[in-house]
Amino acid sequence: MTTLITPTPISGFPEHLPEIRMIEQKLLDTIRRNYELAWFASIETPAVERTEVLTSKWADDKEIYSVWRLLEEDESIEDKLALHFDLTVPMARYVAQKYNDLTFPFRRYAIQKVWRGERAQGWRYKEFYQADIDIIGDETLPISADVEILTTINNVLADLDVGKYTIHINNRKIIVGFVESLWVDKSLVWDVIRIIDKMPKIGELEVRKSLSKKLELTSEVIDQAIVFCQIAQKGNIAVLKYLDWIDNPEVQYGLIELKKVYEQAISLGMSDDTIMLDPSIARWLGYYTGTIYETFLDGHEWLGSICSGGRYDNLASYFTEKQLPGVGVSIGVSRLLSRLIQIGKYNTNRQTPSEILVTKLQSEYENQYLSILWELRKAGIPSEIYLDGSVKIGKQLGYANKKWIPYSIVAGWNKITKWEVQLKHMYTGEKEQVSIVDITNRVKELLTQSIK
C-alpha cells in the first residue's frame, strides 16, 4: 500500500490561488509594458550562479540557498552553485562577461524570481518576483540616466493604479557630507547615518536617545541632525534652500546632482507632489554612491518602501577592471502584490480571465454554441464554454457566479432559430436579447464601459 505524503505549505514560498495569480500576472504585464515603452531591453540570467559570484559583494551568506544534486557524492566539484538572491549581482556579472557584445549605455530590465533565506513573515517571502531596470555606462554615465530611471518607475506606478504614492529622492553624498560637517569622528559617521535613517520608524525621541547615549553626541549636534531629518516635511523648495547653506563640498556636489534629477523629472512630466526631496534616506547597500530612491504608498508608509534603488559607480568591479557606472531600481513585485491586497486595492474574487460564459441549454445545438464561442475568441474576448451540456442551466450560471464571470450567454431553440441569444449580466441580473451577428460587438462595448 502506497504511503501518502501529506501536502503541506512551505513557509515563505507563496503558492497563490488563481484569483491572486491573475492579479500578479497583470502587475507583471503592466511593469513589462512600461519598461519596454522606455526602451529597456529584456535579459534573463540563470536562477543559479557560482557561489563565488553571489558572495563577491554585499551579500549575507546566511541568506543564500546552495544548490546541489541530491545524489551528488563528489563534494569537491569545481562549480559550487547557489540560487541568486537579487537580480543586480547577476546583472553585473552579465555585463562584465558580455561587455564586447553590448551597446552602451546599456538599458536592461529583468523580471524574475529570487530566493533569500530570511525569516518569512507578513509580506516577506523566501521566494519572490523582482522587476529591475538599470542603465549601465562605459566609463561615464550622465545624470540624465538617473532621471530616466525615476520617471520610468513613476509611469509604472501610475499605470498600476496603486493609489497615491511618493518617491523619496536623495543623494548619498548629501547625507555623508552632512554628518561629516558636524565634526563627528570619522569612525562614527555611518553609525550616525544608521540612526537618523530610522527616524520614520522609531521617532524623534528614540533618535535623540540613541545619538546621545550610544554615540555620546552633544545636544547641539543632535539638534542639527533632527532638523536635517525633518526638513523634507517642509517641501522641496525648503529642502533645496536648506542644503544650499551647508558648508561642505560633498553636500554641495550632491546638491547639484539632486537639483538636476528633480528639475529634469518635472520637465519629463512628473508631478511635484509625487517627488519628495528627502536628505535623510540612506539606503544600506554599500554600492550606492549618488542618487537614491525609496517609494512609499501615501497613508501606508508602515508597509515600507515598494520600490528602491540608486546610482552606483562601479558595481562590476569584482568581475572586470573596466569602469562601469550605473543606476537602477527594483520593484519587489510579490511584496507589492501582498501589500496592495492587504489594503483592499484589488478585487480578489475573479477566478478566471474569462469575461463571458457560453452555456449549453440544449445539447442538439452544441455546434452553434461552439460557433458563438469561436467568434468571441476570434474577436479577442476571453471566453469559455460550460463543458457538460447535461447539467441544468441553474448550475451552469452558478458556476459563472462562483468564478465571477461578468456575462453569460443562454440560448435555446426559440433563440437559436431566430439567430438570437440572451445576454445575461451576472453581477446585476439584467438580461438583454442580442443578435448572434452582433454579440461580439455588444460584449466589447460592455467591457469597454466597465473599464471606464
Per-chain topology:
Layout: H1 18-37, E1 41-42, E2 48-50, H2 51-54, E3 66-67, E4 81-83, H3 88-97, E5 106-115, E6 127-136, H4 144-160, E7 165-171, H5 172-181, H6 189-196, H7 199-214, H8 219-230, H9 236-244, H10 249-267, E8 275-277, E9 288-297, E10 307-312, E11 326-332, H11 333-342, E12 356-358, H12 366-378, E13 383-385, H13 393-402, E14 407-410, H14 413-416, E15 420-425, E16 431-435, H15 439-451
Parallel strand pairs: 1-5, 7-8, 12-13, 12-14
Antiparallel strand pairs: 2-4, 3-4, 5-6, 6-11, 7-9, 9-10, 10-11, 14-15, 15-16
Helix pairs in contact: 1-4, 4-10, 5-6, 5-10, 7-8
Question: How would you portray this structure in words?
Answer:
The chain has helices spanning 18-37, 51-54, 88-97, 144-160, 172-181, 189-196, 199-214, 219-230, 236-244, 249-267, 333-342, 366-378, 393-402, 413-416, 439-451; strands at residues 41-42, 48-50, 66-67, 81-83, 106-115, 127-136, 165-171, 275-277, 288-297, 307-312, 326-332, 356-358, 383-385, 407-410, 420-425, 431-435. With 452 residues, the chain is α+β, with helices and mostly antiparallel strands. The longest helix has 20 residues, at 18-37.
